[in-house]
Each structure stands twice: as C-alpha cells, then as structure tokens.
Amino acid sequence: MTAAISSRESILGRIRSAIQTPGMGLADAAVAYGALPRGYIQAGKLSREGTIALLIERLREYDAEVVECTPEELPAAIAAQLAASAKHTFVAPPGLPPSWLATGFDWKIDNDLDTAEIEKVDGVLTAATCAVADSGTIVLHHGPTEGRRVISLLPDWHLCILLASQVVETLPEYFDRVEQPPALATYISGPSATADIEMTRIKGVHGPRFLHVILVRDPDSPTQAPAMRPADTAPHKGR
Amino acid sequence: MTQSVADHPILDPRFAPPFPQAVLPVLRNPQLRKNVAHAIDVIQAKRGRLVAEKTDWQELRTAGSALRAHVLENLGTYLEQFESRCTAAGGHVHWAADAAEARQITLDLLRQHNASDVIKIKTMTSAEIQLNPFLEAQGVHAHETDLAEIILQLGEQEPSHIVVPALHINRSQVREIFARTMGLKNLSDDPKELTNAARRYLRQKFLTIPTAISGANYLIAETGGVGIVESEGNGRMCLTLPQTMITIAGIEKVLPRFQDLEIMLQVLARSATGERMNPYTSLWSGVTPGDGPQNFHVILLDNGRSEMLRRPVERQTLKCIRCAACMNTCPVYRQTGGHAYGSVYPGPIGAILTPQLMHMHHAQSLPYASSLCGACYEVCPVKINIPEVLLELRSQVVNQERRQVGRVFDLMYIGLRMANFLFTSAWRFHLAQRLGRIGARLVTRKDGWIHSLPSIGGKWTQTRDLRGLPDQTFHEWWAARAKEAK
Q1: What letters, b where the CB count within 10 A reaches 16 and e where it falls short, cover B54-69?
Q2: How far apart are CA B364 and CA B327, in angstroms?
C-alpha cells in the first residue's frame, strides 16, 4: 500500500503547489463558498394549482399516465390502476400502508427478496419523497415506503403514489426541503430512454417502460409539508 | 490505405496522426459526414428550444462557472473531505497519479474479487486510461452496457463523441453489427427493434455479473457521495445489482455540497441531450446495507490534471462537466466528426484537454483545430473560455518549436524572420510587393486562384485556395488616382 499512499501525497502536493494557497482549509473554503453567486431562480412563481398542472403536463410529455384522487379515494384508485394494467404480481416496499395493497393481486413484500424473485414480478408500487414540476422529476430517497433501489428498477411497470404536498415547482425548492442529504437517491424523469441510434428517442431500455402516477390531493399546505429528515427517508446506515 | 485509417482511427494521442492529416479520410467519407451532421442537427435543435425556455440560463451559467472555479481553487481541501466522508460511509478511496496506476488498481481490485467479467457504465475516464484493452489482455472481459458503447464494442469501432459516442453510425450499420454479433439474422433496422435486441442481450449480464465499473459525474465532498446521470437505466442496473462497484473519477469532479446539484442538474441535461432532465440520476454514499454493492471503491485519477491547475487560463479546462455542447456547436467538429481528433475527447474541449493531459508532448496540432469563432464559449454551461485556452496552448506549441534544436534552419522560422525584415521598412515592403506579384503570376491558374504554393507555402494551400494578387496594390491605386485628379 505504500505506492498508493505516496500517490495520494504526490497528487495532493502537486495540487497544493499549483494553487499557491497553503493553509487553505475547510473554514476558508466555506467563506469563499458562501460568497458564490446564486442569481438563478430559487422559488417558483406558480400557484399550487399551477405547479401541479405543470407537473402533470411534464409527466404526460414523458408518456407517463397520471390520475388524481383524494386521500379517501386512494385505495380504490390504486386498485383501478392495478386492474387496468392486466398484471398480477406486484412487489412493494415494506413500509406501505396495508390499505394500498389491493386485494385480488399477488403481493411480494420486499423484505430482502432476492433479485431472481424481483425479476419475475410484473410491476411495483411505491411512494415518493418529492416531485419537481419544472422538469417532471420524481425523487426517491429509498426510505421504507419507496424501497430498495432494485424494486423500482427491474419490474417493467411502476405505479408511484405522489402527494400534492410533495410537489415543488423548481429543483432548488427540492434541495431547500432536504434537511440532510440522503444516503441514496434516485431522480426519475420519465421512463428509461435512449437516443443513441440516429437520435431517435426510444422508450424503455433497461428500467421500467411504463410509469403510472397517482397524485393524491392531500390537505397539507406546502409550508406544512414535512421536511425530509434522513430518519424518514433512508434506511439505517451501518458503518 | 486511406480507407483503413477511416475504419480504425487511432484514439491514442501518442500515436494518432496530426489533425490536418487525420481529417482527410473523414472528409472523403460522405456517409460518415451525413450521419454526424444529422445527429448534431437534432441535438442542437432540442438544446436550443430548452435553453431558450430557461429565463435564468445566464444566471445558471454564472453560478455554475463560479462554483466550478471555486472547487478548483480549493481542490485539495474538497478532495480530502470527500475521501474522509466516503470512507466513513463504508467506501474505499484510492489515488492514481497516472493512467497506468489507475489501470493497475482496477485490476488488483478485480482480482481481489475473482472477477473474470465486469459490467461497465459508460465512463470517459476509463476510455482515457484505455482500460478495456488492458483488462482484456489480463484476462478480464469488460462488457459495456450503454447502448452506444455496445454498438462500438460489438462493431469494434471507436467513439466519436463524449455523450453520444456512436453518432457517426446509422441504423442500418447498427443493424449489421447486431445481426452479425448477436446472431439475429432477421433483425430490422427499426431503432426500437435494435434497442430491444440490446435490452435482451444485456439483461442476463446485469443479473449474473457481480462486479461493475463506472465513472462519476459528481463527487460530493460534504457527503462523500457519488452521482451518475444517465438515460437508459443501464447505470442503475450496474449500481444496484452487483456486489462490487469500482468508480474511476477525475480529481476535478468534486462539488462542495449536495445542494450544488441544483445548478449542475439544471444545466447538464439541457446542454448535453436537450432534455429538461435526464431520465435517471443516481446518488449514493459509500455502502448501504441491503441495497446495492457492498464493496465500493473510488479511484481518484490525476493523470495530468494537477499540472493544469497551475495557471488560471489552463485551469479553466478542468471546470468541464462533459456535456459536449461545445462539440455539438463547433463548425469544425460538424465537418470532421470526432475521430480526427485522435483522442477519446474530441471537439473544442478535446482540443484543449488532450494536449494538456499529454503534458504538451503529444497532440500539438489540436489547438489549431479551431477557427476561434467562439461558439463553444457561448454555449459552455460553465463558461470555459475555450478560445482563450486554445490561443494560450498555441503559443506554448510555438515556444516548444522555438526551443527545438535546428530552428535556425526551420523554413517557418526563416520565413517569419524575413517577413519581419521586409515589414519594418516601407521601401523594402513595396519592393517585396512588386517582386511577389511577379512570383505569384507563376503559380496563379487561369481561374485567377492560387491552388498550390511551392515549398513551405504548400502547407497553407493544402487546405485553402488563395486569390491571385491583383495587378495594383491599394497604395498604387491611391497614388494613381491622386495624379489623375490633378
């Protein structure tokens, strides 16, 4: 390992001698960092309704199917989507409310299912952490209601439940809501796609080809929306 | 002979022919030029639309530029912070001074995990250190999983672009490659069918190969996290299913804080592929029990980068976020495609990055592969003043040549000394003009153009025609006009 150590020292030594600011530490960097220009748009200007309408428009541009419902209607709305999919076996993360797991379907709850089992299911049901209307992005922090990354990757069909209070207009608003950075995050903007052959956009290469979203009109105003604490959003991390 | 050069371009700057020579086979290949122009036109139109809708685009560029410059000014601090946070989160951080060391660390890690096969997310750093041929020679087969990279790997072709590396290959050529290598005789050239063929081809590899290699779009100092942006989901497969992940990242890739992604993610996809956001962005810190690879290694690659920090002009090169907007807008790249640059980094960014990665010992023709029109600077989401760097590198190339032994006998040097002697006296200048006019008559064709000059002048006319000299200079005409007026 001596070689690796010496490369570390030589690289850092070259960097330090090149920049000519010996003694610059994190504290000095933080001061300079605080003075960086951030003149871009932080908070959006749309109303709640406008923001939600924009998100729906963006998601539909990505060929995602979006339906809206009230919190009371949610279990029925989920059952309707599952039935319409003509699929039977679904995987779900362990933290979903039991009322979401509609009867009449074969549910695999992901308590460390192995990959081969997940590969066999038809679809997946998850919640989400946040959604950004401006880019039509769904944010997963892979907590107990969103599940491990693999369950929202292997199945071809993804039904995602989004609360209206989780929707923000701009990307900086999402980052503003994150109290502590998550250990894992996936930002999904439309189904998997490629344009590698003659720049022709083809939907569905490896990830789910079908994305369905149920937008729940929950009463929470955006200011009351819970901040995203790591305890809510990430599984316990070992060291 | 020319054909073989076009089929197998050399993307190793140490052996690649100089740009003006490497470009000739491309200029004679109409199919290649048509494929490149088509792809570029599509990306440019999409980018234009999406940048125009962003009312704060210039503010985002300003913020992105300042942030990247700040990172480089504090690079050592942020790298150490990244290292300690990543280690605390269960990752292992390695430092590689050059390409050979990065390759060796990768191989040692693969051997540690008994890997005979490895799946890869598209990574520029791995191409830069020429990892695949090295691993192959050591008995480890690297499987590319990005659609364009599969096309290139199966077709035994070289990349010509950093974001859409197979843009020089059209659908019927892809069909031919897949039909031949996957044994699919009845495959059509419909992009959807071709994409499905790749999906089926790779699915089993994702599910069975337990080791993966990636690059990194971002290293986040605050969290020790790594970020990868992609479209297809092959990245998520590689980041989720294997047990071991090796990430090879340039040392300049670091960002101070998680929140800085709000700038980078807003400019990257718009600049690269003309999308509001790429379909998938994955972020992870170290190892998460029960989710994804349980062995995680980051190799921090220097390979010439630390030398580029020394002076602010060249340092800008390291602000690059590899979006490829500069090559998409470049009038030179549009005509030549990527192979002529003789490097895995083509286009304007390649023209400044490649010679510097080679410590200015190779690829000295690349800083000249530009008209200095400035379009690259205008589109760059982190405001790298590429023309300024090009000019600086050109002057370094000239200084190198000047120091070479035998410069006194160099024709260019003698010519410039002579020009200096003639231009410093009006009398000598007028005489030279008169003599030059007589000389020019010998090489001017009937159409009034000079198509080739003798001796060193031939270098100029190799790629340009010159208008023949007029019978009268402006001074002579002015003097004659004044005489007539009297």
Answers
A1: beebebbbbbbbbbbb
A2: 19
**CB proximity under 8 Å: B 24-53 to A:** 35, 38-39, 42-43
Alpha-carbon distance A169 to B308, whole Å?
A: 39
- Residue B165 is classified by DSSP as T
pLDDT digits over B35-69, tens only? 999 999 999 999 999 999 999 999 999 999 999 99
- What order of strands is seen across the sheet that includes strand A89-92? A65-69, A210-216, A157-163, A123-127, A89-92, A106-109
pLDDT at B1: 33
Nearest to B18 by CA among B327, B338, B331, B340: B340
Q: How far apart are CA B272 and CA B270, in angstroms?
A: 6
- Whether the Cβ atoms of residue B247 and residue B218 lie closer than 8 Å to each other: no
Q: In chain A, which residue's Cα lies nearest the Cα of B98?
A: A7
* 3-class DSSP state of B167: coil
Residue at B109: amino acid letter: L
A74-to-A191, A216, A217 alpha-carbon distances in Å = 23, 7, 10
Cβ atoms of residues A192 and A144 within 8 Å? no
Q: Distance (Å) from the C-alpha of residue A139 to the closest C-alpha of chain B? A: 9
Contact A211, A160 (CB under 8 A): yes
Q: Classify residue A180 by its DSSP letter.
A: S
Enumerate domains of chain B plus CATH numbers. Answer: 19-306 (3.40.50.10420), 408-485 (no CATH)
The single-letter code of the amino acid at B337 is: G
d(CA B226, CA B239) in angstroms, rounded, equals 11
* Per-residue model confidence as pLDDT tens digits over B10-28: 899 999 999 999 999 989 9
Number of helical (H) and strand (E) elements in chain A, helices listed first: 7, 12
Q: What are the tokens at A215?
A: 């937008």
Percent helix, strand, coil in chain A, to 5, is 35, 20, 45
Does the CA dihedral B385-B390-B391-B395 come out positive or negative? positive
Integer Cα distance of B37 and B334 in angstroms: 6
Q: What chain B residue is nearest to A119 in terms of C-alpha separation? A: B207
Distance, in Å, from the CA atom of A180 to the CA atom of B288, rounded to the nearest integer, reads: 16
Q: Which of B38, B240, B292 sits opposite A198 (nearest CB)?
A: B38
Count the neighbouring beta carbons within 10 Å of the beta carbon of residue A103. Answer: 7
Please check whether residue A129 is in contact with residue A92, taking contact to mean a CB–CB distance below 8 angstroms.
no
Question: Which backbone phi and psi does B471 adopt, to 5 degrees?
Answer: -70, -20
Q: Are A229 and A178 in contact (CB under 8 A)?
A: no
pLDDT digits (tens, 9 = 90+) for A69-109: 999 999 999 999 999 999 999 999 999 999 999 999 999 99
Q: Which residues contact B243 (CB under 8 A, 6 or more apart)?
A: B113, B210, B211, B293, B294, B295
* Domain architecture of chain A: domains with CATH: 2-34 (no CATH), 48-233 (3.40.50.10420)
CB A68 within 8 A of CB A217: yes
Q: Name residue A108's beta-bridge partners.
A: A91
Put simply, the chain A residues between 170 and 229 with a CB less than 8 A from any chain B CB are 171-172, 174-175, 178, 181-200, 202, 204-207
